[in-house]
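Before drawing any conclusions, I looked closely at one protein's amino acid sequence and its backbone structure tokens, quoted below without any editing.
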Amino acid sequence: MNVGIILTGGDPRTLASMTREAEEAGWDGVFYYDAIAIGETEIYDPWVVLGTMAMTTERVRLGLIVAAPTRRRPWKLAREAMTVDRLSGGRLVLPVGLGALDDAAFGNVGEPTDARTRAEVLDETLEILDGLWSGEPFGFQGRHYRFGPMTFRPPPVQRPRIPIWVVGAWPHERSIRRALRWDGILLQAAEASAAESDVDVLASIVRRVVERRRAELADRPFDLALDGRSPSDPAAAAERLTVLADAGVTWWIESDWADTSVESLRRRIAAGAPRPADFGY
């Protein structure tokens, strides 16, 4: 099991510094978030932030929890992600979802807000990213996007593409089916919050998703990620993560949206990544 952390506060220079600190402290991944206007929260462009994080580290995986392609031009997103992938030497992962509507950069600026339209746009966007990242001539004809063949060079470092994780909301069939088509699932289970509920209930859901993935596409690598807050007690955290790792979780991503202060984030980074009891995961 890999363990990452979401940086929920700080300016770009501080975020870059904290990412380096996390790498030195042994974390496996560092993530930012994709938002434009939420209340009075101080928010920075995520692709600029990821660029600074890439330039100050050498090992950790980088990404956004989660990117919202539903409000970004797919060809622009393809360029941004490829550039960060090359800056980082192939360390980018792209978790995506429909986007959170508490961001004023949806309905407030005329972007579509209904779930069906956003899902259609997301599906088309993922097909376009996959095609443009191939480095070969690619055109597209869909309901929301249409364009003639064009060639994007250079392609990303990672082949056949930058890994795409898709938010999967259990037990909604369309959401889970979409995620299983790509390279990973960021699992959201309404009946078992990763932060609070009985870990055995969550592990049972994880096993069902993993078994389905193996039955449908057993020959392709696949990540199953969860985000939440692990217990502050190291022994309790290790016990919880051991259960989840045994069930098939490949990424645990530590997140705290209540306390976003730089001081709190630095304390959490310095404390080190929680690990399953058997460090061999």
User: Anything to note?
Assistant: The first strand starts at residue 2 and ends at 6. Residues 199-217 form the longest helix (19 residues).
